[in-house]
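Q: Please design a sequence for this.
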């Protein structure tokens, strides 16, 4: 990298000028322009050392319109929603809400890291509840492992068998009855969520 490497990298980024405005709207009108880049959020975040970009950098990237890198990063999925950053931010920016908005957008655009368990688990949980009216823990774990890194499953097999033997991870878990009634209502709610997401994605 030459002495202008940083500047060149910035110029080579694909910047989307409307991205920041869109994320601002999604994060309940959170005004990212107020951010003074003080770094308090990254300093207080208990997970920043595991993130590819700290929260301060994420805010900066969103403002710059660096949509691709933000939506494909691991940071937004590692955020544990502890709100520590939002509490400490001197500009009262709700960084956690911005993270939620970014996660939603990444899922809508299919940009979330394919082998990272959290986004896969999020989507599969939604699909299982939509189909059965309730979660099925064993199926959720199994499908998440298969879609991310099935080798992890080998290491977890012994624990899974023990939990099954103790009845804490049932193989057969009763679904909410198909048809009218509660399941019908739930399906309408889930379909409405899907519809809202689709509308927001195209907005
Ligand atoms: S703490 Fe607030 S003002 Fe400081 S960098 Fe983070 S978001 Fe910006
Ligand atoms: S809410 Fe997320 S980004 Fe903020 S401090 Fe907690 S883990 Fe870090």
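A: Design:
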């Amino acid at each position: 990298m030459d002495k202008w490497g940083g500047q060149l990298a910035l110029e080579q980024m694909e910047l989307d000028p409307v991205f920041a405005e869109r994320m601002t709207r999604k994060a309940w009108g959170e005004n990212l322009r107020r951010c003074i880049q003080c770094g308090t959020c990254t300093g207080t975040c208990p997970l920043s050392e595991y993130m590819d970009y700290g929260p301060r950098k994420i805010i900066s990237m969103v403002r710059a319109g660096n949509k691709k890198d933000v939506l494909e990063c691991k940071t937004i999925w590692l955020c544990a929603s502890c709100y520590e950053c939002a509490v400490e931010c001197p500009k009262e920016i709700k960084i956690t809400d911005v993270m939620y908005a970014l996660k939603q957008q990444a899922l809508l655009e299919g940009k979330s890291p394919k082998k990272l368990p959290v986004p896969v688990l999020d989507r599969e949980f939604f699909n299982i509840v939509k189909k059965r009216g309730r979660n099925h823990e064993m199926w959720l774990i199994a499908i998440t492992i298969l879609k991310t890194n099935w080798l992890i499953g080998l290491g977890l097999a012994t624990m899974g068998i023990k939990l099954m033997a103790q009845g804490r991870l049932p193989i057969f878990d009763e679904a909410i009855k198909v048809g009218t009634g509660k399941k019908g209502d739930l399906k309408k709610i889930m379909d409405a969520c899907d519809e809202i997401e689709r509308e927001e994605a195209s907005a």
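Q: Thanks. Anything notable?
A: The two ends are 39 Å apart (CA to CA). Residues 1-8 have pLDDT under 50 and may be disordered.
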